[in-house]
Amino acid sequence: MANVENVTLANGVEMPLEGFGVFQIPDAAECERVTLEAIRAGYRLIDTAAAYMNEEAVGAAIKKSGVPREELFITTKLWVQDMSYDEAGTAFERSRKSLGLDYLDLYLIHQPMGDIFGAWRRMEELYRAGKVRAVGISNFYPAPLANFCETVEVKPMVNQVELHPFFQQEAALENMKAYGVRPQAWGPLAEGKHNIFSHPVLTVIGEKYGKTAAQVALRWNTQRGVSILPKSVHAERIEANFAIWDFTLSEADMAEIAKLDLGHSEIVDHSDPKFVQMLHGYKVHD
Fold first, then answer.
1. Distances 224 to 104, 121, 255 between C-alpha atoms, Å
2. Contact 78, 123 (CB under 8 A)
3. What is the pTM of this model?
4. Catalytic residue positions?
């Protein structure tokens, strides 16, 4: 089994640098199957969310895997609908029970929307009570992250954002580092955009190591200290995405990949009011 590197969070908790994401796998049977395949392939970090509508399927896979609970690192997220002090506690318990777990390893604010400060106070209480080992945020760009960290008592330990060779966010990584926040990448394969699986620069680099363009893109992020969450529903890709721990990109390779940065997302625009309205309108429960 691959020797996956860990990163140490601000509170001393160890988090794997690679995990398995289950975004856009709402079908319960399929989600359970691929999560179980991922765990059997060696993944120990599993990332879900209330908004993914598959926490129960992830929980079923965890139970079937037979892997001791303490060897797993399970993340879920608080949705916009429940972004308040009162609702956050209820939502956490709903997620915990859906996953069938006594505690969670990481609980994130999913989007910087709604009463994030009220919700965070409740999350701080859950953290202090030992119900979650670490707390964090997701989709916070540099200015909102700085405002958040300057305001709250317990600083977020993780910020999960879009990070891949075409949207590298170096300034954002520096900002996170200044506040002791560890970066985690959603969409580390750019959701398949920019021909990432056959990109000439990544392909040529990969040929030197006997690796694919996708494996190069994933390894590049981890060498920046970024935890990654690749997702696939295909067993061979689940395994291939995990086979990145037996090679190291050179400084020259890293410099070549740095040139691919477009400086903006082509997946989502968090500054678009219509996008914000859409997220507020999306309900994960009655």
1. 26, 31, 12
2. yes
3. 0.96
4. 52
